[in-house]
Structure formats: structure tokens, C-alpha cells
């Protein structure tokens, strides 16, 4: 499944791109998670800090007279999501060589001056590639999904180590093998999302499948890379049982 993001500060172009996307998805009956449209770079980047399914970005290059703002946004996306599909929808095709300078690896440049038929076909081609890539790379594997009015992400369940109450009010941090994700939620919200998770402490929820050691004396749970979290005295016995450890 794919998630689609559009960054365009011209209202008419926003509508044109969004309609082309929706028409292609409907015509081909391709499944998708969401379509999100933004006119400000910061709004987009705040959303895509979270891991999602296969992500597709349609970005304008010039935003509010900032000639290369789209390239800066694309570079930040690429730093966080190496497998994201990035496409520029722009009148500045002469900037194409700069994708190498910014280390972006854009899939395509779609010229806004194209007629509607050609424009729509280019959009459809990108989405066809994204859907195929999503299926090939296994984004449909067993995942943990967190969806709320303020947050949406999904990660492979077997990569989850633990969740921890954040120092920021009303937020929780998720630690995986490769990422740290901070999002709006409570520990109580998290533990209810999947029966395989276990709340071992008032501030921690863990994935017992990834526990490699439990120090009963120090009441510490160990994961790979020497990552640890606390376990309360009252939860220790149950955790040992869940992890198949001897008391």
C-alpha cells in the first residue's frame, strides 16, 4: 500500500495534481493509505518524520519565491526515508542536474506545461511504479499501525524494541532497530493496539519477542545494541513468563 504527499503552494496546481492522482487510483483500483496535500514545507516534513508504508512525494521546486526549496525538502525526506519515491512537478526542468548535487535520486520531473492527457499519464506512470514497488518490497508484511487524529505511522512489528514516555508532554517515543519516532499518544494508548506488546513499567511498553536478556537484580530489560528499559517489580514475574525466561 502507498501513501501520497503533494507539496505545492499554488492552489490551482494543487487541485490539478490531486485530481490526476485520484483519477489514476480510481481508474486502476490501486489501494492506497492516504493522499495529503501541503502548501508549506514545514507541514509536510512534520508528517513524514514518521515511518509509513511506501511513500510517494510530488514536490514543487520553487515555493514562495524560494527557488530551490523543493530540493531542500527532498534532501530531508531522503535522509529519513531512503526508499521514498520523489517526483518533481515543476516549470523548472532545467534544474534536473541539481538532483545529483543534492543526492536526491528523483524518479521523474513532470513539467507543469504538459497538456492534461500527457500530464495525467506521467502521474499514472509514477503511481504504477510505486504500487509495484510496494508489493515487491513487502510493505504488506506484519506491521504495527498507529492511527489517531494527530498521528499516523506503521512499522514492521518485528523491528519494534520498546515504547517510552517522552519528556515532551503527551508524547511517546518508539525505538526500533534503526529509528526513534516521537508521536502524540500515551503509553496506555500504545499497549491497547496490539496484544503482543507488554507494559513492563508505567513508562515503558516492550516487544517481548526482541528481549535478549532480563537482569532481575537491576530490573532491566536488554535489547540489541545495549538498549535497555526498566521493568517494575510487580511486572517482573509476568515478563519472565512472556519471554520464556526462568524465574
Alpha-carbon distance between the two ends: 43 Å
Helical run tally: 7
Major beta sheet, specifics? 5 strands, parallel
Q: What count of domains describes the coordinates?
A: 2
Q: What percentage of the residues does DSSP assign to strands (E)?
A: 25-35%
Query: What is the CATH top level name of the largest domain?
Result: Alpha Beta
Give the total of beta strands.
Answer: 15
Structural class: alpha/beta
Q: CATH topology of the largest domain, anyone?
A: Rossmann fold
Anisotropy-based shape: elongated
Strand order of the largest sheet: 2-1-3-4-5
Helix content: 25-40%
CATH A-level architecture of the largest domain: 3-Layer(aba) Sandwich
State mean pLDDT (0 to 100 scale): 85
- Enumerate the spans where pLDDT stays under 50 for 5 or more consecutive residues: 99-103
Give the CATH superfamily of the largest domain. Response regulator
Topology:
Blueprint: E1 2-7, H1 11-28, E2 32-38, H2 41-48, E3 54-59, H3 69-80, E4 85-90, H4 98-101, E5 108-111, H5 116-136, E6 143-147, E7 152-156, E8 160-165, E9 171-176, E10 180-184, H6 187-191, E11 198-201, E12 204-206, E13 213-215, E14 220-222, E15 228-230, H7 233-242
Helix pairs in contact: 1-5
Question: Can you summarize this structure?
Answer:
The chain has helices spanning 11-28, 41-48, 69-80, 98-101, 116-136, 187-191, 233-242; strands spanning 2-7, 32-38, 54-59, 85-90, 108-111, 143-147, 152-156, 160-165, 171-176, 180-184, 198-201, 204-206, 213-215, 220-222, 228-230. With 247 residues, the protein is of the alpha/beta class. The strands form 4 sheets. A 5-stranded parallel β-sheet has the order 2-1-3-4-5, sandwiched between helices. The protein has a 5-stranded antiparallel β-sheet with strand order 10-9-8-12-11.
Amino acid at each position: 500500500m502507498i501513501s501520497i504527499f503533494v507539496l505545492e503552494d499554488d492552489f490551482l496546481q494543487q487541485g490539478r495534481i490531486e485530481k490526476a492522482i485520484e483519477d489514476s487510483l480510481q481508474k486502476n483500483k490501486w489501494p492506497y493509505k492516504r493522499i495529503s496535500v501541503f502548501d508549506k514545507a514545514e507541514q509536510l516534513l512534520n508528517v513524514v518524520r514518521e515511518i509509513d508504508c511506501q511513500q510517494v512525494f510530488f514536490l514543487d521546486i520553487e515555493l514562495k519565491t524560494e527557488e530551490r526549496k523543493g530540493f531542500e525538502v527532498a534532501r530531508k525526506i531522503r535522509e529519513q526515508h531512503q526508499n521514498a519515491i520523489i517526483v518533481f512537478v515543476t516549470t523548472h526542468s532545467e534544474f534536473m542536474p541539481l538532483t545529483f548535487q543534492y543526492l536526491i535520486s528523483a524518479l521523474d520531473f513532470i513539467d507543469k506545461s504538459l497538456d492534461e492527457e500527457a500530464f495525467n499519464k506521467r502521474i499514472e506512470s509514477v503511481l504504477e511504479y510505486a504500487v509495484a514497488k510496494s508489493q515487491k518490497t513487502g510493505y504488506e508484511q506484519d506491521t504495527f499501525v498507529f492511527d489517531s487524529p494527530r498521528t499516523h505511522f506503521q512499522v514492521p512489528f518485528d523491528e519494534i524494541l520498546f515504547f517510552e514516555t517522552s519528556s515532551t508532554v503527551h508524547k511517546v517515543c518508539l525505538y526500533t532497530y534503526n529509528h526513534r519516532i516521537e508521536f502524540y499518544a500515551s503509553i496506555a494508548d500504545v499497549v491497547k493496539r496490539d496484544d503482543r506488546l507488554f507494559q513492563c513499567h508505567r513508562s515503558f511498553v516492550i516487544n517481548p519477542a526482541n528481549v535478549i536478556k532480563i537482569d532481575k537484580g537491576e530490573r532491566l530489560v536488554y535489547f540489541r545494541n545495549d538498549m535497555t528499559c526498566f521493568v517494575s517489580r510487580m511486572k517482573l514475574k509476568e515478563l519472565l513468563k512472556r519471554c520464556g525466561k526462568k524465574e
